[in-house]
Each structure stands twice: as C-alpha cells, then as structure tokens.
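Duplicate of #3305? Posting structure anyway:
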C-alpha cells in the first residue's frame, strides 16, 4: 500500500445528506481513470466546491 495520503475538503451541498456525500466520494475515487462520466448538470454533485487538497506523506515504519 502507498504511504501517500490526501486530505480533500469539499463544501457539501445543503440538499445532500452525509451518507449520500460519502457514497458519492467513495464511488468517484473507486472509478477514477475508469472512464466514468461526470454527474449530470442537474445533479447536486455536478459543481462540488473543492476547498483544498493537501498531500500528507507518512514515513514508512518497519
């Protein structure tokens, strides 16, 4: 497993529950690079506001 971790802060749309948001993010990450099309323009997920992306490098422990 990679020792790289990323923290992504997203401004959650008001009309999306925490469970929906978590499921959408999980599916989006799982399908990166698989040619999956983005959500339709009328989806609350279409225009997510990504506030920041931070790379966190952890030291490998033996």
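Output from current build:
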């Amino acid at each position: 497993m990679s020792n790289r971790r990323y923290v992504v802060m997203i401004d959650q749309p008001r009309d999306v529950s925490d469970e929906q948001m978590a499921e959408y993010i999980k599916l989006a990450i799982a399908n990166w690079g698989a040619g999956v099309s983005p959500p339709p323009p009328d989806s609350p997920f279409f225009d997510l506001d990504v506030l920041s992306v931070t790379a966190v490098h952890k030291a490998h422990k033996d």
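Confirmed duplicate; merging threads. The helical segments are 18-30. The longest strand covers residues 49-57.
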